């Protein structure tokens, strides 16, 4: 078989395309428009033959895979993914003294946009490299790896763009949270009030260590940090016979603390406010395809799992998530008592 042309190839629509001379075929390979394993035809060969089984590529020094470009794109991708993960951990700054709101937003938006661009570049370079590989399995593996990396990068970038709408503001508000944890002398009673901020779990644990069982905890809070509240809830859960009393305000993360108690009380006529985690947007704003909710998948919530395990009905959790973090879902104490969330009524607070 010779390289004499003209040559034809199969186009994206499945129809023969051509005619091409040898240089044009090589140019198509360079641009990733044709793979080395794609079939080509010429009057000389008289049959469709995989490109890598023809003499067309023999002695073509211009067609080695762009290894350096692929390595650079892969390193850039790894670096940007690492930066997105690192920023998400919150270790880049002191959470008690975060940057300005716009500074935080830039920290989320910048890497997300960079990850989008780098992911696209990696996929394009990888596909161009795969187009020049004569080993079909290696070429297919490279294309698959690049596609997977692109999908992962896209999902991470999307997750960061979700977070930028809520997380920076939440971080600012949490840094300003103030709370008090007091042990009533000569009793097993602990009184907690204020926003659940950093160090809250440590402060409550110190108070728990000072009192005997069964401990009695009164909490009045509009919520705050989920991680801190979860630690407290689990610490209370470990204390046998613990009673937690919800104050006039007990919303969001406060309910986690409440649910840690064996006995859970609230005043008649009051309402408890259920609230989605700050990184779960309202349902109308989410990316949902064929019933798959990408927002909830990316933000698998330990708080939701804990609430469900401790007896919060799934429809209440679902409704709070449907509304998103900007809306509180208030449920009457009487309803929660009927559904087993609360175990009893507390005496109304004294004026």
From TrEMBL:
Keywords: Membrane, Transmembrane, Transmembrane helix. The keyword Membrane applies. The chain crosses the membrane at residues 67-87, 107-126, 138-161. Residues 8-55 form the GYF domain. It holds the Pfam family GYF_2. This is GYF domain-containing protein. It comes from Methylorubrum salsuginis.
């Amino acid at each position: 078989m010779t390289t004499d042309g003209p040559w034809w190839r199969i186009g994206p629509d499945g129809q023969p395309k051509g005619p091409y001379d040898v240089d044009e075929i090589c140019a198509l390979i360079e641009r990733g428009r044709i793979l080395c394993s794609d079939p080509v035809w010429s009057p000389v060969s008289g049959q469709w033959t995989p490109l890598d089984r023809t003499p067309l590529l023999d002695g073509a020094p211009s067609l080695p895979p762009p290894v350096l470009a692929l390595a650079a794109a892969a390193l850039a991708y790894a670096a940007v993914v690492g930066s997105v993960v690192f920023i998400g951990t919150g270790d880049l700054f002191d959470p008690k003294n975060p940057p300005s709101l716009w500074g935080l937003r830039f920290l989320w938006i910048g890497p997300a946009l960079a990850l989008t661009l780098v992911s696209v570049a990696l996929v394009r370079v990888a596909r161009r490299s795969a187009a020049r590989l004569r080993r079909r399995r290696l070429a297919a593996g490279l294309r698959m790896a690049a596609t997977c990396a692109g999908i992962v990068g896209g999902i991470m970038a999307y997750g960061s763009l979700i977070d930028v709408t809520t997380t920076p503001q939440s971080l600012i508000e949490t840094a300003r949270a103030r709370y008090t944890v007091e042990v009533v002398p000569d009793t097993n009673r602990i009184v907690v009030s204020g926003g659940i901020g950093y160090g809250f779990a440590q402060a409550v644990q110190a108070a728990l260590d000072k009192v005997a069982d069964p401990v009695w905890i009164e909490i009045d809070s509009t919520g705050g940090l989920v991680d801190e509240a979860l630690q407290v809830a689990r610490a209370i859960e470990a204390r046998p016979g613990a009673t937690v009393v919800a104050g006039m305000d007990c919303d969001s993360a406060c309910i986690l603390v409440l649910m840690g108690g064996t006995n859970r009380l609230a005043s008649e006529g009051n309402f408890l406010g259920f609230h989605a985690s700050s990184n779960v947007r309202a349902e109308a704003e989410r990316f949902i395809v064929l019933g798959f909710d990408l927002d909830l998948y990316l933000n698998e919530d330990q708080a939701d799992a804990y609430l469900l395990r401790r007896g919060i009905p799934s429809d209440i959790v679902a409704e709070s998530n449907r509304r998103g973090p900007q809306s509180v879902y208030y449920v009457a104490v009487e309803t929660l008592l009927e559904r087993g969330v609360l175990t009893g009524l507390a005496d109304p607070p004294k004026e």
